[in-house]
């Protein structure tokens, strides 16, 4: 028997469509079987990690990079969450926030050797962790060529300041936007 959609499913679909950008949006190449398996593993691992974090509330430190071309801000879409984020991630043991930001730019979107400017930090309990996130900015004259890994990062979007208010952002990305824009 075919599955009939109910009002709740239709409402959720509409909410997701409303949150999803419709312009300045680039998808990664079509997913291979290996990419798809990675995406499923990342989704499962992230859900398990969030459950564990909510019980333990561990301390976590990360670095995110706000990349601008004019007033347009680059957002990335992780495969394992619904919200858009800034490129970046966790700081490895012994790594500086600046080094982590550079490493994550290369891993997630293929950008290398760009001068980053410190742009403050924010603290909060996000995803069940006691998080400290260090922000950096990168201002470019033209849209860069990006290389998405198609496993962790599956899409990018260049958002205008006005559009940011209507997008679902991670807590850390929202904290940056509230203080910097």
Automatic annotation (TrEMBL):
<dbReference type="InterPro" id="IPR020084">
    <property type="entry name" value="NUDIX_hydrolase_CS"/>
</dbReference>
<comment type="similarity">
    <text>Belongs to the Nudix hydrolase family.</text>
</comment>
<protein>
    <submittedName>
        <fullName>NUDIX hydrolase</fullName>
    </submittedName>
</protein>
<dbReference type="GO" id="GO:0016787">
    <property type="term" value="F:hydrolase activity"/>
</dbReference>
<keyword id="KW-0378">Hydrolase</keyword>
<dbReference type="Pfam" id="PF00293">
    <property type="entry name" value="NUDIX"/>
</dbReference>
<feature type="region of interest" description="Disordered">
    <location>
        <begin position="1"/>
        <end position="28"/>
    </location>
</feature>
<feature type="domain" description="Nudix hydrolase">
    <location>
        <begin position="58"/>
        <end position="181"/>
    </location>
</feature>
<dbReference type="InterPro" id="IPR000086">
    <property type="entry name" value="NUDIX_hydrolase_dom"/>
</dbReference>
<feature type="compositionally biased region" description="Basic and acidic residues">
    <location>
        <begin position="15"/>
        <end position="28"/>
    </location>
</feature>
<dbReference type="InterPro" id="IPR015797">
    <property type="entry name" value="NUDIX_hydrolase-like_dom_sf"/>
</dbReference>
<dbReference type="InterPro" id="IPR020476">
    <property type="entry name" value="Nudix_hydrolase"/>
</dbReference>
